[in-house]
Design goal:
InterPro entries: Met_Sox_Rdtase_MsrA_dom, Met_Sox_Rdtase_MsrA_sf. Residues 61-228 form the Peptide methionine sulphoxide reductase MsrA domain. Residues 1-18 form the signal peptide. There is one protein chain. The protein has helices at residues 2-7, 36-43, 68-82, 137-145, 178-189, 241-244, 246-252; strands at 23-26, 29-32, 58-64, 93-97, 125-133, 168-171, 195-198, 209-214, 221-222. The protein is built from seven helices and nine strands, in the order αββαβαββαβαβββαα. The radius of gyration is 18 Å and the shape is globular. The termini are far apart. It is an alpha+beta fold.
Length: 273
């Protein structure tokens, strides 16, 4: 397998070739899903230039899985249960990542009437960013894979579709990071239902496939305040008012920076409401 891995061309495959239920991609190379990142690490593919990560280092990561409202709620719960964080200590924020264009005029925004720095046009997807200890990354990755059903479908798979809602994970170093191995292992512990691909930016929305991004080359851009700690996307998915109020708590603690974007599609909140 090692010889075959090294011999395969590095071009990222087309979306159709990513759909195989027992295949994954690292650096554009196909290998069995369970061993892809582990084998890459064993071969030392690109790891020599990466700094070592201490277990107590706090790292910035992000996860994308369809609409970011529901995803943020689940990671807020994870911060509270895994790290025992209080309200003002929460770091889970909704925003955008994964596009090659980066920011436009210094910002990335939700759809708005003025088409100002629209995240979709910039190639970004909706994500949730966290700051967590390196030692806890595997536990948070497991929470991410719990969002998918047994076939690798996200909760709104047949509703929100397209580049803006694709599955992606951002970690320091991307597919070359030791954390990529933990990501795959977490997926295996949660049923081994996902494929993986090295994210190149502006990646397509492929069912049951997660694009692994480097947070340095594809950083996170914070979303608008009205998107933070929002009720879920599904009908009747209303969270407690105490959850909605976290936006004010986190902002008061200085952990919710301004996005610089219009306040909603019509200037007064989402859809003008």
């Amino acid at each position: 397998m090692v010889v075959a891995l090294l011999a395969i061309a590095a071009a990222l495959p087309t979306p159709s070739s990513l759909r195989s239920p027992q295949r994954s991609v690292i650096g554009g190379r196909h290998v069995a899903r369970r061993g892809c990142f582990e084998l890459g690490l064993a071969l030392g593919l690109g790891l020599a230039s990466l700094p070592a990560l201490a277990a107590d280092d706090e790292i910035e990561v992000y996860f994308g899985c369809g609409c970011f409202w529901h995803v943020q709620h689940e990671f807020v719960s994870a911060e509270q249960s895994i790290l025992r964080r209080k309200d003002a200590q929460l770091t889970s924020l909704a925003g955008y990542a994964g596009g090659n264009a980066g920011a436009k005029d210094g910002k990335v925004c939700y759809h708005n009437a003025g088409f100002i720095s629209d995240y979709g046009s910039l190639g970004h997807a909706e994500v949730v960013r966290l700051r967590i200890p390196t030692s806890k990354y595997g536990a948070f990755a497991e929470e991410y894979f719990k969002l998918f059903d047994k076939d690798g479908n996200r909760p709104d798979q047949d509703g929100d579709r397209g580049l803006e809602y694709r599955n992606l994970v951002g970690i320091p170093g991307g597919a070359n990071s030791p954390l990529a191995k933990e990501l795959v292992q977490a997926s295996i512990r949660q049923g081994d239902k996902m494929n993986f691909a090295k994210g190149k930016g502006d990646d397509p929305d492929v069912r049951a496939t997660v694009f692994v991004m480097d947070t340095e080359t594809h950083p996170f851009f914070v979303g608008e305040a009205y998107h933070q700690f929002h009720d879920g996307f599904a009908w009747g998915e209303d969270y407690p008012q105490s959850y909605n109020n976290l936006a004010k708590v986190v902002a008061k603690a200085g952990n919710l920076p301004a996005s610089g974007c219009p306040n909603g599609m019509l200037g007064v909140g989402i859809a003008g409401l």
